[in-house]
Amino acid sequence: MMARMWKRRTTLxxxxxxxxxxxxxxxCAGTTNLDSAFTLLQGKGLRAAVEAINAKTNPLLPPAILxxxxxxxxxxxxxxxxxxxxxxxGLALLQEITSAKTNAASVRFSTVDDMLTIQxxxxxEKGYGNLVLAYAAQDTASRLLLRLxxxxxxxxxxxxxxxxxxxxxxxxSDYWTCMLxxxxxxxxxxxxxxxxxxxxxxxxxxxxxxxxxxxxxxGRNDGGSGGFGGDHEMCYQEYNPAQVGHLVLxxxxxxxxxxxxxxxxxxxxxxxxxxxxxxxxxxxxASSILKKRDRIGGWLTARHVWIIWNEALLDR
Length: 316
Fold this sequence. Notes:
Blueprint: H1 2-9, H2 34-44, H3 46-53, H4 68-72, H5 77-102, H6 109-122, H7 128-150, H8 156-168, H9 173-182, H10 191-196, H11 199-217, H12 232-237, H13 241-266, H14 275-285, H15 287-290, H16 302-314
Helix pairs in contact: 2-3, 2-5, 3-6, 5-7, 6-7, 6-8, 7-8, 7-13, 8-13, 11-13, 13-16, 14-16
């Protein structure tokens, strides 16, 4: 059903992501000590690593995490060892991110905050692995926020502030272009789109072109609307920017569902547990959110949101 939903909107996909400023490293002094980072992750978990990232003195800085493809082609032994260590750290971090999404019996705002910190932290360096990790963290944050929203005891203002961060801290089209160039790869988008559109439209065109390219390689004519298979960890282990683009679109759709449900709560309405009542409330209170087209993910129906809502709650 999700595949059919995706196919209906493929031609409608444009972008909502705002341009975000990226720097190489941080303005303040810091450390990229990998042994320290591993110790924190393996011994004390993600929370300790986040505290090190947020430290006011000597914070943990993100490494540039290259793909397996680029790593394998490095000739210098010492440089290759360093890149491999970066990738090992990234994989350990990705597994912590995945665990936070699938194993959380009780969801806390602090876990969402950790995901948002990781998302922003990874994007401070350009790299294929950084991109995968950051989007995995955003996907987890979005999924956890849906679960928090399901509990009427949770303050909607607390949820709104985190949704705003989740949607704001995303890469520009230039980030993607630099990452692809770093990987000796590129994506061509039409001149008219590049010259006459804002960055959010260029980013959408780039992501859709990645999907179309992979679909052609597989001999498909659906533009990748049904997906190519593979989660964030599979994309991390094997260079596959087209599938990363597909996962980005999937998370964007989840974010639209999150915002629509949040608007219902902000208007003082309860979110029904029965399908027809849920659909009716969404249509009445969040139609303006659902009908937007100028964003990645395009428009959604209330029934699509119902599917996403239940998928999130089933993870609990």
